[in-house]
Amino acid sequence: MSAIKVLKYQVPGTSEIYCHLTVPDFGALPPTTKRRGTIVLHLTNLVQGDACPMGSVVYSVPTGKPKDPVVQTYIFNQEATIEFAARVAQVLTKRLELPVIVSASVYGDALGTTAEIAGILRFVQKSLEASE
């Protein structure tokens, strides 16, 4: 028994980065079940109709040891966005201790400030808390 929630969000204080988040609905699981599942996050700063390359996709899993680096696999590597996708995936995996798939089609000035990544992390954490 499991379910998912799909949420869309614009990160405040950023240059229009939009998030599409799919999280496990932990409330649908029996109370004895440990929180598990994979978080899927797509980030873009493009609007419908804009033509662009696919972006990068990174799969990241925790090692189980807080000080160890996460294990990452680049599923699709677009040079312009891979660093941003990998950084977001690493931060989310370390903080949430859950596997994460991050897809990033973020181009131009929107790439990679610490404030943007912090805003994305806050959104994902609040979404997970709401689903428990």
TrEMBL record:
<protein>
    <recommendedName>
        <fullName>Proteasome assembly chaperone 3</fullName>
    </recommendedName>
</protein>
<dbReference type="InterPro" id="IPR032157">
    <property type="entry name" value="PAC4"/>
</dbReference>
<dbReference type="Pfam" id="PF16093">
    <property type="entry name" value="PAC4"/>
</dbReference>
<dbReference type="GO" id="GO:0043248">
    <property type="term" value="P:proteasome assembly"/>
</dbReference>
